Amino acid sequence: MRINFSAALAALLLTLCATAAAADEDGYDLWLRYRPLDRAAQANVQSQARSIVLPGASSPTTQAAVAELQRGLAGMLGKAPAPASRIADGALLLATPARLPELAAAASPLRAELATLGNEGYLLRQTRVQGHNVTLIAANSDIGLLYGAYAWLRDAGTGAKLEASSAPKLSLRLLNHWDNLDRTVERGYSGQSIWDWWALPDIKDQRYTDYARANASLGINGTVLNNVNSKPEVMTAPFIAKAAAVADVLRPYGIKVYLSARFSTPLELKETSTADPLSPEVRAWWQRKADEIYKAIPDFGGFLVKANSEGQPGPQDYHRTHADGANMLAAAVAPHKGIVMWRAFVYAPKGAHLADDRARQAYEEFKPLDGTFAANVLVQVKNGAIDFQPREPFHPLFGAMPKTPLMMEFQITKEYLGYSTDMAYLGTLFEETLESDTKTAAGAVANTLSGMAGVANIGSDRNWAGSQFDQSNWYAFGRMAWNPQAKARDIAVEWAALTFGPDKRVVPPIVDMMMLSRETVVNYMTPLGLHHIMGTSHHFGPAPWVDNLERPDWNPVYYHRASRDGIGFDRTTKGSNALEQYAPEIARQYADPKTTPQQYLLWFHHLPWDYAMPSGRTLWAELLTRYDQGLADARALHARWVALKPLIDARRYTEEEQRLTRQVNNAILWRDACIAYFQSVSGLALPPGVQAPAHPLDYYKSLSYPYAPGRG
Ligand code: BDP
User: Fold this and answer.
1) HSE value, Cβ hemisphere, 13 Å, CA-based, for 477
2) Pocket-testing residue among 178, 187, 224, 262, ligand 1, by greatest number of atoms within 8 A of Cβ
3) Measured between alpha carbons, how far is 333 from 241 in angstroms, rounded to an integer?
């Protein structure tokens, strides 16, 4: 028998190729996968990178840049050029004015452009240098080169055109880890903390380097290592040494380390007799502590502080203001150029007088302090006035503190949006807040910011974020921290192409799913401006009936105020008047339910069940419609994913398919439980065509989740 070897070989190759195309991935590589490109793309990328040239001496940061380019090229093309010392045609040239005199020359057209890009910006250009056609990555500093290298790789991986130039709009772009010293993570749904405090400082996990690469690829330049609910031990020598070891790994990637400081630390360590911020003893203690930290971490970023909120100690314990507390710490780090990020997430400390409306409190406490904070203090404000809900109007402090640098605090981890099981792309949430017009001199919320912080969703899970799609939220946060005007959809396109490959059959449907996902969650959880009706403490699943917690403003009934007469929180002049904290134009517009955006309707108004909605339906019927829409869209997300099965590797396909199935069940649970409850309150019948909940209300009330992850 004659065997046709070439045919057999061809068949084998075909099988191998097909398998390779769909090779299983676990998600560890994030958006830095660098999988082989198609031929045309390979040729294009290869023509731009026949050699990699870095004039001048290398630094840890340029080494990281060159190593990443080599890694990327090896992955995308199958081989990577070695670094070369001579500029030649087709070189990928990394240069700063200090490294390449041509860039510093008065005649250089790039000189003026570079001058506008600051320390961290970069430009990518196809140009001629020393008589050769090169692809130039130029910046004013080595960190700019690293960012430029990542941008070039991003363009190569997505097939995008070379980005002309880019510089970050915000100077502080931070992750906030809510990680505890025992490796549990408050509101973490992706395993343990990546910081192995026990093993540090001797053992530095490879993950720390990969974490640095991923963050640098987005331009994130700072990280707070520990939970805002901090411990005094964080400020002791052993932990400072551990933080220093992490800082050493992150430094080449332009990422500074910060720590959350517990306000009463010196007192609790029994090294002072008080924690009063005006006490000389306390001030001297923090000054010495800052000196000690800077000795171990010369580029230490500074402190993040949660004070007088949810039982945490703070300056008000000594009848001092937030500014007194923040300025005391600011004085300690100022000689080292450190900063203090003081959180505005405050509501009455335990036992204290309860404000009529929790949504009012941060503004009431902070607005009067505008102009009294030290120059190196930033006030860090959550995106909304309650707490990381699926949807909130923007926080009234944005635009209201013109004399104080503000930071935005977004939550990347999905405490209130279905953990890491439900798909909810947060790019749209971030964009919605950042674009909101404050109707003050500042304009959009994005313009009021000096920095952005994201509560990280990163953990020890192999895929880092708990699910493949939750990686997109880390990604979107980083890209928007770099450019708060960036569009959620553009970012989704980029992420999907990098994560699943630049296949035209795959990217658009995935992007459509992402763009639909957050609104889906809003609809099946908290439509029409409802908020904080989640289960006690774990915040997973519906519990609109809860009314028995110690503090009224922990109870869902406090927020929805549903009764026989109607539903919603009246924040107009007839109610808490929280509206007065917004610019007059907004206050006027939102004072009338007719001119209030429907998405915020029940946030600002208490309305009768038969209130006529623009759709022609009653409010009651509209609410039911939204819950049904949420469920229908959850089903649609699942169906769209199933349709992509042939195009996604089996492992990632299955992981997400299971999650989307569970999401449909979560949506059913939310819809049914909320309808059962609100019906019990309204006493109204379900209109024809609306399906009755599967169980009686008591069934939903009986559900409990004692072992839900991530509790505080
Ligand atoms: C809430 C979380 C709680 C945090 C708190 C905060 O439930 O775990 O400690 O925010 O931001 O959303 O301080």
Assistant:
1) 31
2) 187
3) 18
Quick one: fold of 23-166?
Answer: Chitobiase; domain 2 (3.30.379)
What dotted CATH number matches 172-500? 3.20.20.80
Q: Is there a contact between 681 and 623 (Cβ–Cβ < 8 Å)?
A: no
Architecture of domain 525-569+606-702: Alpha-Beta Complex (3.90)
Q: Which atom belonging to ligand 1 lies closest to the Cα atom of 711?
A: 8
pLDDT one-digit tens code per residue, 313-361: 999 999 999 999 999 999 999 999 999 999 999 986 644 445 589 999 9
- What is the model's pTM? 0.96
CB atoms within 10 A of CB 356: 12
pLDDT in tens, 253-272: 999 999 999 999 999 999 99
User: Are 383 and 408 within 8 A, CB to CB?
Assistant: yes
Give CATH 3.20.20.80 domain extents, the chain: 172-500
Residues of the chain with CATH 3.90.1330.10: 525-569+606-702
347 lines ligand 1 (CB under 6 A): no
Any ligand 1 atom below 6 A from CB of 345: yes
Sheet holding 51-53, edge to edge: 83-84, 51-53, 91-95, 132-139, 122-129, 165-166
Candidate of 176, 180, 226, 345 to mutate for ligand 1, largest count of ligand atoms within 8 Å of Cβ? 345
The residues that bridge with 223 in the sheet, in sequence order, are: 175, 257
- Residue 607 is classified by DSSP as B
CA 354 vs. chain centroid, Å, equals: 30
The answer for residues whose C-beta is within 8 angstroms of residue 429's C-beta and 6 or more apart is: 383, 390, 391, 410, 518
Q: How far is the CA of 260 from the centre of ligand 1 (A)?
A: 14
CA distance 52 to 72: 12
456: left (phi over 0), alpha (psi -120 to 50) or beta: beta
Residues of the chain with CATH 3.30.379.10: 23-166
